[in-house]
Amino acid sequence: MPKDHGIGASPKRREDVRFLTGAGNYTDDINVHGQAYVHFLRSDVAHGTIKAIDTSAAESMPGVVKIFTGADFEGVGGLPCGWQVTDKHGEPMKEPAHPVLCQGKVRHVGDPIAAVVADSLEEARTAAEAIDVDIEELPAVVDMGAALESGATKVHDDLDDNLCYDWQFGTDTETTDAAFAKAAHVTTLELVNNRLVANPMEPRVAVGDYSRANDEHTLYTTSQNPHVIRLLMGAFVLGIPEHKLRVVAPDVGGGFGTKIFHYAEEAFCTFAAKACNRPVKWTSTRSEAFMSDAHGRDHVTKIELALDADNNFIGVRTDTKANMGAYLSTFSSSVPTWLHGTLMAGNYKTPAVQVNVKAVFTNTVPVDAYRGAGRPEATFQLERVIDKAARELGVDPIALRRQNFITQFPYATPVAVEYDTGDYEATMAKMEELMDIPGFAARRAESEKNGMLRGLGVNCFIEACGIAPSNLVGQLGARAGLYDAATVRVNATGSISVMVGAHSHGQGHETVFPQVVAEMLGIDESMIDIVHGDTSKIPFGMGTYGSRSLAVCGSAMVRATEKIINKAKKIAGHLLEASDSDIELKDGQFTVAGTDKSVAWGDVTLAAYVPHNYPLEDIEPGLEETAFYDPANFTYPAGAYACEVEVDPDTGKVTIEKFVSADDFGNVVNPMIVEGQVHGGIAQGIGQALLENCAYDENGQLLSASYMDYAMPRADDLPHMADYVVDHSCQTPCTHNPLGVKGCGEAGAIGSPPTVVNAVIDALHSGGHTHVSHIDMPVTPSRVWAAINGQ
Amino acid sequence: MYSFDIQRPSTVADAVAALATDEAQPLGGGQTLIPTLKQRLAAPSVLVSLSGIAEMKGICTGDDGSLCIGGGTTHATVAAEAGAYLGLASLAGNIGDPAVRNRGTIGGSLANNDPSACYPAAALASGATIVTNSREIAADDYFQGMFATALEEGEIVTEVRFPVPEKSAYMKFEQPASRFALVGVFVAKYADGVRVAVTGASEEGVFRWSEAEAALSSNFSADALEGLSVSGDGMISDLHGSGAYRAHLVGVMTKRAVVAAR
Ligand SMILES: Cc1cc2nc3c(=O)[nH]c(=O)nc-3n(C[C@H](O)[C@H](O)[C@H](O)COP(=O)(O)OP(=O)(O)OC[C@H]3O[C@@H](n4cnc5c(N)ncnc54)[C@H](O)[C@@H]3O)c2cc1C
After folding, report:
1. Which of A312, A323, A359, B255 could form a disulfide with A164 if both were Cys (CB 3.0 to 4.6 A apart)?
2. Out of A287, A703, A781, closest to residue B239 by CB
3. Four-point Cα dihedral B65, B70, B71, B75, nearest 10
């Protein structure tokens, strides 16, 4: 019997009541009395020198409150990067300035040149058209290869070149070369991990407010991590002490990483609210989002896999160019390095793994973490090259993977991380069963009867989630801790508010977190609410990304709840005239072990706040506890995915007929929510694999600047639910966090892209198109057709 | 959006009068025009809404048996009520999404003549007559390249007359993002011959593929198209496909339309 409450149950998402009935409170729903509106005048050229900005005509236009340019921000800090990468020569990465408004130069289409604050948005927009900007256009740096050539135009004049860092990691060169030298077979693959636009349903919004009465700033913003924004913006950009700055991230309509970062518009609205002595609001249009939200991925890689005569993997070597865009976004530098290189061992016991990454500045929108962040890029390379090797060697791709699996845990990889636990054989076997691999030949024959090619693609992946131990990430260059925090506030009559550092922007924390506390206390979930997203209400937590909320913040909540239980037992012991060590808590009742003497949860909580009969000499009144939790390691969710595609050889169109995921997330608190996360993640991965393509032309103009050209996955691009199977029954609990959970938010987006591409290549080979060894994503009909026809 | 005045005439005559003012523009379903205004890419001072003009709405059969569709008729209405011309009804039912189909009009689509739009293929393949407030224009004379038509300033498409073919089908290969036609082919078989019109492909906008028409007129089967192809020169080449790919799709979609024709 599935449980109907607590851990393991699937109660419906309580937050959906407000989301689905239009009662959510998103940032754009927040309107502060007297607010003005800002419109950003953005660069329409990719690269140029600002010769002059004349705002005089615009200033006298109707409704204009004030016009800001880069000059107004000269004394203000730039947007900081939160992670310092050290290159292979021991030198720190290059960190060019990132002003709030452009100073001297524009560096990508969408770079904000000026900001008009006006009584209405339309007046602000009209006035912006009257600003005269004289820009001398410079050649745009778009292609990463060209950007690294000597003599290339520089994105940042004060740097030597366009190289941010040249990073090397893992096995040393001598050992790696030796592995390749003795290889019986080496498979090489060059590939692109396509640039993506995150496209959360809700575009970004910021409302700045300032109170002269007490010199307090408030920023309402669409953020995944309000405390991180408070720290970065307060300390590094505007110099506002934390006690004078409140950051509120109310309901947020999806983030997928792109709402982690601290953006210019947030700093602007906070700054301008004080400068204008009026609340200032900015709501991004979808068009602005395309050119100002940090993009994702954009790696170009050459990967080599060395195998011995028995097909054992003996070496992996990669050479990647990673696009940083024009400036370093908040966590951009960590994505191609620590979130990517550390995963290059995958699920395999390859003894030598060396990762090389050059991060490159270009005249494009900054690139940063997007669902999976670095781990999809790692998985894609590795699983594509393994598939290619299997084909070259004429061996079964499943058997080749299986043969090379890591089977002993803990396992220290050659790329710094130590996997605590896992069972890759179990997820592989589960995937095979759910996919009905033996039935594939018949299904292929059926497709061929209809003139279609059918392919089967498989893939394994591992991710490092629950990001993560502060001391480790500190050594790796993070400029922040990565713990999390929770305060459990038990009210007098027994209801509970849990203030958490994690932020829910679609994940369902408001449903899941109470399940855990309810299970621990044996009380009803409806007595527990989660409070998140407001720095004036919650403890200093680090927010939500990297599949960390339950693993890290949930663990903090468990620790705080344990403290509550310990204290409550002391109170119960006093009320029951027994030793607290004899008190048991079950189903919301405190009982003296072995007796029928008990008090209810509500009696104890009331006693804590009405301490008439209370051990005041031993413990304080009240029942509220905070815990900060810093995990001992990352968590390592892993899985095996498969899909079947049909390719129409006449048009090149790919249809996904069936998709199966077999994930190991450790323990699962709410199976329904986990399945939803995986369904959504796979949909995004299918989007990357088949549809999404953020493309620039050679002048740095964004070609896919709207939904007319940027293809998001839609329901009919995905398999029918009956053929869209997500399984999480293989469970090796995380060994180091109290819940044994690993995180499930990114898995689908990590595991699915190579699965799809492997399936397409398999289909083409079955149709005799054996010259096609790879097609870059998105695998669009035109690209498939071109590959088939050797174009 | 810049501010503008709006007028809501209830007759074609009033609409024509309202459009005589400088910088006035007709507003059909707004599915193309409103996004353009929102992006401030157009600045009409007056919008003359055609959606209150009853005489421009609905579908009827003309004396010669042709299907007469009012210029203000929505895609949804054509999809639901043009059953006498199946190829046309199914084309209308696959434009955009329900919101677009419930607002967008045939007159607006033909006036706009987007090179990837669906209706121009139907009108050209049917040898339709575009009726305006002042004249009748044969489809062969009406389409004049991307976004260009024979319409004069202030001229309104009031009706479109479609001769009903014996058999027809529209095959649309969707551009993955917009789901407009990357290539769309409309095949219509009449007693006196077959007409084939292609949208989405050419830099010159919708066009007739005369070789295919000739081949199909003598033998209305996919086999008749074997060996025929259009050149990739002058075909649209963009993020979603090269000219050569589009040219190839013209052949594939034409064959499929012939097979599907009913
Ligand atoms: C999301 C989306 C998807 C779409 N997908 C498709 C698709 O797959 N295939 C497709 O073909 N189209 C598609 N369209 C376009 C849609 O069919 C539009 O409705 C159509 O192109 C314009 O018609 P309208 O009535 O909305 O015209 P409007 O937007 O109101 O006007 C368009 C232009 O025509 C003029 N105009 C309007 N009516 C008349 C008239 N009666 N006489 C003279 N001039 C007139 C206007 O002044 C304007 O210049 C899509 C649109 C959207 C928003």
Report:
1. A359
2. A703
3. -90
